[in-house]
Each structure stands twice: as C-alpha cells, then as structure tokens.
Design a protein that fits this description.
The complex is a heterodimer of chains A (258) and B (368).
Chain A lengths: L1 H9 L1 H15 L9 H21 L6 H23 L1 H4 L1 H4 L8 H28 L10 H25 L3 H14 L12 H7 L3 H13 L7 H25 L3 H4 L1
Helix pairs in contact in A: 2-7, 3-4, 3-7, 4-7, 4-8, 4-9, 4-11, 7-8, 8-12, 11-12
Chain B lengths: L3 E13 L8 H10 L6 E13 L3 E5 L6 H9 L6 E6 L3 E4 L12 H11 L4 H15 L14 H12 L6 E5 L7 H15 L4 E5 L3 H7 L2 E6 L2 E6 L1 H10 L8 E4 L7 E4 L10 E6 L5 E7 L10 E9 L5 E6 L4 E5 L5 E11 L10 E5 L5
Parallel strand pairs in B: 3-7, 3-8, 5-6, 6-7
Antiparallel strand pairs in B: 1-2, 1-4, 8-9, 10-11, 12-17, 13-16, 13-18, 14-17, 15-16
Helix pairs in contact in B: 3-4, 3-5, 4-5
Classes of the chains: A mainly alpha (258), B alpha+beta (368).
Chain lengths: 258, 368
C-alpha cells in the first residue's frame, strides 16, 4: 500500500501525462469529441428506458434517474476494471524498455475512467433536474460513495491486470463475467423481484451495495444505514489490500512474461 | 582511489524459452495435471563481473544475441538479475530505446511531455528545455502535428532530442548514435560527445566498431552471455575483428573433471588465457592446482605469460605458489568446499604462428 502511495507521489507527473494521453486520444478523431462522455450514458439510459418502461412496465418512481444511477455506477466499474485488465500487457513495450513502477499503469487507467465518471455524473444531474427529483443534503455524501467505489475498482483492477500477464484468457473470461455481473446488479430492474431466500447472497454483490447506496442518497433522500456504509467502505478496503498484496507479489516477474 | 560507478558482481539473467510459455488457463491446467510445468532456461547473461569506474567510456561488443542489451537493461534497472547483483552509484540516464511510449495520435508537443514524463523528467524541467528540444530536433514547424504524420527520421530526431536533455553521471547508450540523415548524425554525435565529456561514465553498445574504437577507452566483449575479453579498446576490438568465426576458434578448458570443464574462447595475436572467476571444489586436503596446458611444440621463448590470482572461499584460501614459468599455480583452502578463483592472466606470442589449443586445467592435488 505504501508502495502505491509513494509511486503515486513520485510519478504524479507521469500519471497525469498518461491520463491526459488517454483522454486526448480517446475522442481525438471523432466529431463530437468529449461530448460522447456525456452522451454515452444518456443514450444507453434512453434505450433501456424505452425497452423497460414499454415492455416490462415496471412501476419504479423516477425510473429514468433510477436507471441512470445504475448505468453510471456500473459503467464506471466495468470500464475501469476492463481497461485496468489490459493495462500491463498493453504497456509491454514500455515496461521492457524503461524503468517505471508497474503500479502506474492500472492506476492511470482507473484515473482515466474517473474523468468519464465525472462527465457522466454531469449527465446524471441534467436528468435529475429535468425529472424534477428534488436535491437534498445527502448529495454531499456522493464523494464518499465515489471514493469507495473508485478504491474498490482499483483494487479489483490491479488483481485483474496482474492475472492477465500470466493468463491471457482473463480478457475473454472477464468479458463474460462482467456481463453476468451486470445482470446480477439491479441496474434496470427493481430489487424486490429477487426472492427473499436468495437475497441474503444477492446483497453480497459489491456493485449492488454501491448502486443502492447511490439511490438511497438521491432517490430516497435518506442517509444510508450503517450497514450500507460498512459494506461500501469494507469492500474498498478489502480489495485495496488484496489488490496491492497480489499485485506486489506478482509484479516482480511481469517483465519476463509481458 | 577511483570511484566505482557501476559494480556488476557475478550477474546472471535467465529467461524462459518462449515455446514453453503458458499463456492461457487451459494450457496451464493441462500442463499442471500432466506435471509438465517446468521450463527450459535460457541464460542470456552468464556470471558477468565488471567494475566501471568514474569517467570511463566503456563499450560492449559481441554478436547478436550475445547478451549486450540484456546487460544494459539490467544496469538500467529494467531487468533484475536472476543471480548476482548490480549496484549503481550515481544518477543514471538509460537510453535504451528511443521514443518509448510515443503516442501516434498525439502531437509532437504532447509527445515531448509524455515521453519526458516516461523518462522521469519533471514538468518544470521539460518547460525549461522545451525550446532546446524542438530546436535540436529541427521540428519547429511541425510541433502541432500528430507524430503519426512524421517520417521515421523525424520521429527519431524528436526522440533523440528528448532523451539527450539530461546531464547524468552515468549514461547508458544502446545503438542510438545513428539517427537521421548525415547532417543530423553529425549533430547527434556531437551531442553525445558533449554528454560524455566532463567525467560522465558511459556504457555503450554498438555494432559500429569504428565508433567504439574512437569513443571508448575500455571494451568488454560478450559472447553467449559471458565475458570473453575485457580490456583497452584497441586490443579487444582487434581481437574481435580477427575472430568472427567463433566455432572454429581455439578454446580454453578449465575444470577438475570432464563434466565441470569450462571452455573459454581464444583469440589469435594476443592470446589470452581465461579471465574471470571460476568455482572449483577442493578435495579432502583443500588443495587446488591450476595448470595452463600449452600444447605448443614451437615455443620460441618469446612468449610471455603473467598470472595473477584472487581467491575467495571459507577460511580465506591461500595462494601457495604461482609459477609463470610453468604456467601453474596452487591454492590451499578449506577441505571439500568451493573456492572461487579470479584469474587474470595474459599470454602473448609473436604473431604469424600456427594457432593451437591452449588449456587451463584446475584440479585438486589430493590425488583423486
């Protein structure tokens, strides 16, 4: 953990440059450019809204906001972890030529995703205002939610990136896992369709906790329960510890395999 | 005493052979179940020992695959030695690969910052040197163009100018002196000489022997990961050029038994017996003797040999005698232990004589 922090500090400029590179190149040759960061979650939300409101007729209050909270949260997690997954193998040409602490690569990918998260949060607020969902004081807890979500994703992404170096199958496997994970998270369906006896297991899903935490703040206008806090902070700490330990153990031989 | 800047101590680097790589889970488990999960090793650098002193300009030569670049990467900190150690005293600027991390879609300006960050420069440093970089690369008018539109020469010029902004105590250079057209090449060679002057310690790899001869004052010749020869630039380059046909070159043989015999290449004109350190197991009496076997029958009496030894092991082994006349030596150490003998020897004979096999045999003298 201290290794990560020290590396982050010493290599802040490099991290900044890598994130700026990702940001600049992502939309470099597209016409709408950075607008896509906002348009993407909005359009996805639009499609889901059309499908689920008309086909399934779920009765969820403020469904557009309900949906968008799920999409923004899960998209961040999925993008951050998937880009972290290939961060080491994708930088093979650098790692084998210049000495750079390998922590920098997954961290820079997760930071890049944070920029997207900021833009999609903007989009979320546009919809919140349009839908007339009243703002409340609990919005001030969103930074806490984001901090834990980002740390959780970073820890998870570091584990993935290290495994990816040794087993290239990870990338295909994880594509399937993330799809399954998406369906196991209440993004577009109401939580009450989960049978009571399964719910005990269902709620262990970290993404369920983060999404629900978010909705409690914005839609219920309430302070999340102590248990919700415990889950969000707990997963963040657990995965940061796991991530740094596993990554730290495996990174020594990265160079022989990338 | 001269300060040692790079201390390479019995450094060894092993790689796994590519065809044995397990890159997928399925492959991994199949092999695990079959118990086939061991790998063939490939030794790229084999027990290399050298000390580079302050202000030395040291060249490394050798054929492709001799381990030159691997050694440089180990010194630069990119690779960690499998065995042995490498210690660096001073700040180091490795120029292994120019333009590492250039992003094709970014402009030249953006790439200067990105590449600079990768090389470990600070933002202030790049801001200060930005104009120098652009001026030296002669790319002022293309500074806002994405580098994918650059010719490879332009790209290398940009990379070279970024990489040579530093003022390091130790400079590591891997084949980068030949960048761009002849005009720029002259300019870049000038810049390199500038960087090398003023007490900078330099380690460079080049296939252009002319460059090595004119710039280096010491040369290490590597082959199959081992040091073949280490000495002044002229001697080593001459030997190297006289002997590209390694397979038919005479060899030294060192060892107690047939199975631990070590072979060392020989080169004509300036015959050199083995250099470097060898591990030999002592017998019950703790004695080891070395013999330089010289099967020449046409010795003219003009040959000269010098041997100096440096031993290490338990109970501090003692050199009992060294006979340069008989080309032999004797050491006493602790019984049944491994003694490391560092041999520095020199054997010269007049040129033009037939090449013969010379051998050095180290053996215990306890009678077994």
């Amino acid at each position: 953990m201290t290794g990560v922090i020290r590396a982050m500090n010493k290599y802040r400029f490099l991290l900044g440059q890598l994130v700026a590179r990702d940001f600049k190149t992502r939309y470099k040759r597209s016409v709408l450019g950075v607008l896509w960061s906002m348009l993407n979650p909005l359009l996805t939300m639009g499609v889901q809204y059309l499908v689920f409101v008309n086909l399934f007729r779920w009765e969820i209050e403020n469904y557009a906001v309900y949906l968008l909270i799920g999409t923004v949260t899960f998209n961040f997690f999925s993008e951050a972890t998937q880009s972290a997954l290939t961060s080491i193998t994708g930088s093979a040409s650098l790692i084998t030529k210049v000495y750079i602490p390998t922590y920098v690569f997954p961290v820079s990918k997760v930071l890049s995703s944070c920029i997207n998260l900021a833009f999609s949060t903007l989009a979320l607020y546009v919809i919140i205002l349009i839908q007339g969902v009243p703002l409340n004081v609990y919005h001030l807890l969103i930074p806490v939610l984001y901090a834990t979500l980002i740390l959780f994703s970073l820890g998870f992404g570091m584990i993935l990136s290290a495994l990816m170096v040794y087993f290239r199958d990870m990338q295909f496997l994880y594509g399937v896992v993330i799809t399954l994970w998406m369906y196991l998270t209440p993004l577009f369906y109401p939580v009450n369709i989960i049978p009571d006896n399964l719910f005990k297991i269902y709620r262990l899903n970290p993404m369920y906790q983060y999404v629900t935490f978010f909705r409690t703040l914005v839609l219920d206008a309430a302070c999340p329960s102590l248990e919700q806090f415990a889950f969000c902070v707990g997963y963040a700490v657990l995965f940061m510890v796991l991530g740094t330990v596993i990554f730290g153990k495996m990174k020594k031989k990265f160079i022989l395999y990338v | 005493m001269e300060q040692v800047m790079i201390d390479i101590n019995q450094a060894t680097m092993d790689f796994r052979r590519e065809h044995d790589n397990t890159n997928s889970l399925k492959e991994f488990f199949v092999k695990l179940l079959q118990g086939k999960l061991h790998y063939e090793k490939f030794r790229a650098v084999d027990n290399v020992t050298a000390q580079i002193k302050k202000g030395q300009v040291c060249g490394i030569i050798g054929r492709n695959g001799a381990g030159k670049s691997t050694l440089l990467k180990m010194i630069a900190g990119v690779l960690k030695p499998t065995d042995g150690s490498i210690r660096i005293h001073g700040n180091i600027a490795p120029m292994l690969e120019l333009g590492a991390g250039f992003d094709q879609d970014l402009t030249a300006k953006e790439n200067i910052y990105l590449n600079g960050a990768i090389l470990g420069y600070s933002r202030d440093f790049i801001n200060k040197r930005f104009d120098d970089i652009v001026e030296f690369a002669e790319l002022r008018e293309f500074i806002d163009q994405p580098v994918r539109t650059f010719s490879s020469g332009m790209m290398m010029r940009l990379a070279f100018s970024i990489a040579t902004q530093v003022d390091p105590e130790i400079l590591i250079v891997d084949e980068i002196l030949s960048v761009g057209d002849s005009h720029f090449r002259q300019k870049s060679e000038g810049r390199m000489r500038e960087m090398m002057s003023g007490g900078t310690t330099v380690l460079m790899v080049s296939h252009v022997l002319g460059q090595i001869r004119s710039m280096c004052d010491r040369v290490i010749w590597l082959d199959h990961g081992k040091v073949v020869m280490d000495g002044d630039a002229k001697t080593v380059c001459d030997a190297y050029e006289g002997l590209i046909d390694f397979d038919n070159a005479p060899k030294f043989e060192i060892g107690r038994h047939m199975d631990d015999i070590q072979r060392v290449n020989m080169y004509p004109d300036n015959w050199l017996p083995p250099q470097g350190s060898y591990k030999i197991k002592t017998g019950p009496m703790g004695l080891v003797s070395g013999n330089l076997r010289c099967p020449f029958n046409d010795l003219t009496g003009k040959e000269r040999i010098s041997i100096s030894l440096d031993c290490n092991g338990e109970e501090e082994p003692v050199v009992i005698h060294v006979s340069e006349e008989h080309m032999s030596f004797e050491i006493k150490g602790a019984p049944d232990t491994v003694v490391t003998v560092q041999i520095n020897s020199n054997f010269s004979r007049s040129p033009g004589q037939e090449q013969r096999k010379l051998s050095l045999v180290l053996e215990d003298t306890d009678g077994n």
